[in-house]
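Supplementary Methods. Inverse-folding protocol.

Structures were first reduced to a discrete structure-token string of length 416. This string, shown here, constituted the complete conditioning input.
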């Protein structure tokens, strides 16, 4: 029996053949001979449209820690504060996010730790924006370890998933260095013999480098040096106090209330080195600070927690420790690690070493090591800290703090 094909089907087949045969420059006509709507047909040689690569999942990013730049999509699940610790409330700072493929994820092994450079902290940090918890974000940066955990560093853009608005870093902003690997203009000269070393060998070589060709200051000269090294970038007549963050006239220094004086970040009683030329006059750890706040800090070790400190917003203090404001936690840590590398007992002074204790008293130790390592990671060197290092090198002591140039060397020497 013959197969009967409906007329509509025949017409469709014929039209399809016609479409295939008619050149793109010609219009199709209807069966009645009247012009039909012109159809733009692709030419055989036309290049396919480019399609933007889809964001990686968090799982893919965790398995691709090669340092390449990528965009990752994930839900905000907390703030990392250590390799295996992510807090979900009472966020201590705006420095990092943890993202995961599920908003309910609780296993840190399935989270990506995202570094938040200073340009993004007010908009994307959890302390300032706790409502970000559970939101899905697209984040762009380098896939490399953060807090010694699969992560993203040198982050350059944040956006809510599905949003057309992306926050990118201003072109004038210097990207914070990755805590797992940085380069310095001094790598082929000043640090050449240290590159590639780790552990005690790196510590020993850094000591040799930063102890060579140094100009040792008197305690009186420190006043002048600090007026240069800690100058307020927004007001050249002022210095910036390290803990309080207050900008104060350079000339308003001394021992009176509300004046600034010379704070020893490595408390001079921890090793009993006083203020004779040596560790007591090493500008790399001497900073301007309000007289009252300086007295409140005293010779306390560094740790988390305590009660609020008057005239020092963000600072906390208890019976055996002091916690500085978030913006200088990394600065404090890197000064402590510098002092340990610079003053190792071979200059007639005590061998200064950080430990994991508080209440060290007059012992040549300062803690708390685990907290200082965390601060070094969560607060990378900023423009102020880098400028300060350069000024001390160029004008005053002619040595550098290597942990500002290479913050990852803290982990290379002391571990994670």
């Amino acid at each position: 029996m013959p197969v009967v094909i409906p007329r509509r089907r025949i017409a469709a087949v014929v039209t399809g053949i016609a479409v295939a045969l008619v050149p793109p420059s010609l219009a199709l006509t209807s069966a009645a001979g009247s012009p039909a709507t012109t159809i733009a047909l692709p030419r055989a040689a036309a290049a396919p449209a480019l399609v933007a690569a889809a964001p990686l999942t968090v799982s893919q990013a965790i398995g691709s820690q090669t340092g390449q730049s990528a965009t990752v999509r994930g839900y905000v699940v907390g703030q990392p504060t250590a390799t295996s610790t992510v807090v979900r409330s009472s966020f201590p700072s705006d420095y990092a996010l943890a993202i995961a493929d599920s908003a309910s994820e609780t296993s840190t092994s399935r989270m990506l730790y995202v570094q938040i450079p200073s340009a993004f902290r007010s908009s994307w940090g959890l302390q300032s924006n706790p409502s970000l918890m559970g939101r899905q974000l697209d984040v762009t940066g380098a896939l490399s370890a953060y807090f010694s955990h699969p992560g993203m560093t040198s982050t350059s853009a944040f956006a809510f998933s599905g949003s057309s608005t992306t926050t990118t870093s201003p072109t004038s902003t210097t990207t914070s260095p990755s805590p797992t690997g940085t380069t310095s203009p001094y790598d082929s000269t000043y640090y050449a013999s240290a590159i590639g070393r780790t552990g005690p060998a790196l510590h020993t070589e850094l000591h040799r480098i930063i102890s060579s060709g140094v100009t040792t200051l008197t305690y009186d000269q420190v006043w002048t040096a600090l007026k240069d090294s800690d100058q307020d970038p927004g007001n050249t007549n002022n210095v910036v106090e390290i803990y309080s963050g207050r900008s104060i006239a350079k000339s308003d220094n001394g021992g009176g209330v509300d004046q600034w004086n010379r704070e020893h970040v490595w408390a001079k009683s921890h090793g009993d080195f006083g203020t004779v030329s040596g560790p007591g006059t090493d500008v790399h750890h001497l900073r301007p600070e309000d007289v009252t706040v300086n007295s409140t800090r005293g010779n306390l070790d560094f740790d988390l927690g305590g009660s609020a400190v008057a005239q020092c917003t963000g600072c906390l203090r208890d019976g055996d420790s002091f916690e500085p404001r978030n913006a200088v936690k990394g600065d404090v840590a890197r000064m402590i690690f510098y002092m340990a590398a610079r003053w190792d007992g071979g200059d007639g002074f005590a061998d200064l070493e950080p430990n994991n204790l508080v209440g060290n008293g007059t012992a040549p130790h300062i803690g708390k090591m685990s907290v200082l390592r965390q601060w070094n990671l969560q607060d990378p060197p900023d423009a102020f800290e880098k400028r300060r290092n350069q000024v001390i090198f160029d004008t005053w002591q002619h040595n550098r703090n290597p942990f500002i140039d290479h913050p990852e060397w803290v982990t290379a020497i002391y571990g994670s």
